């Protein structure tokens, strides 16, 4: 899924620990084969190829995940949109580069974007799109879902103290390490100096943290810097925010809600915080104004 996964596990039996970690990594590989849009044979890629032509049968797991994405799309006022794939490609972020498309090009691509065009048939377990060219993109929740599944596997094997990470974007702290009863200490990077310091720290104890940072993937054109965090409603990168971190009970939720918080800002998060446990905002302004929702 285009990222690196890691596990720090506490236990007393080395062999059991190694078996549990191997099982967790095997689950990541299974999900990559199932969900990755970089793999032509994945179930997700098959839906993208065929759903505009006919209903495509989905496994119960994939169907449930897409339904969850549509839930996030509706509740986020379209700022989380599972169908953002064509926009990501148009802006060159699909392969990690970046390019500045023309206005007409963006307008044309927006005709293929919109979660309302994705239709699920629960009785038949199928997915279809009512427009050609639509592509669903798991990038907004795939890593969080994988982290949650890794945590489930470690728990079913009898472990309750671990830190599971999908790079630094989605993290879950199980229990608390022996030397820190508050939980696993995680630094949230300073978006103005991401390699030099942190903006704040958080302790994760049976809690997930996900971060969306506009600095993470950018390119410059015409004297401006463009971020990879796109507003699916306009077709352009979101502005005004440098970084948002969200905590939640599950990594799939923390990851999904970082995008609406990044695009819609602190006021929207305050109104909708029942879906979040908390959120840390770094607006494009003075650092002393950064902070958690009060």
Describe the structure.
With 294 residues, this protein is of the alpha+beta class. It contains 7 helices and 16 strands. The strands form 5 sheets. Strands 1-5-6-9-14-15-16 form a 7-stranded antiparallel beta sheet, with helices on one face. A 3-stranded antiparallel beta sheet has the order 2-4-3, with helices on one face. The longest helix is centred in the first third of the chain and has 22 residues, at 14-35. It is globular, with a radius of gyration of 19 Å. The two termini are 34 Å apart.
Q: Helix segment count?
A: 7
CATH architecture annotation of the largest domain: Roll
On the 0-100 scale, what is the average pLDDT? 92
End-to-end gap = 34 Å
Side by side, the strands of the main sheet go 1-5-6-9-14-15-16
Reported for the largest beta sheet, the result is: 7 strands, antiparallel
Q: What's the count of strands?
A: 16
CATH superfamily of the largest domain: ApbE-like domains
Integer-rounded radius of gyration: 19 Å
Structural class: alpha+beta
Low-confidence stretches: none
What is the CATH topology assignment of the largest domain?
A: T-fold
Helix content: 25-40%
Order of helices and strands: EHHEHHHEEHEEEEEEEEEEHEE
The fraction of residues in strands falls at: 15-25%
Q: Categorize the overall geometry.
A: globular
CATH class of the largest domain: Alpha Beta
Oligomer: single chain
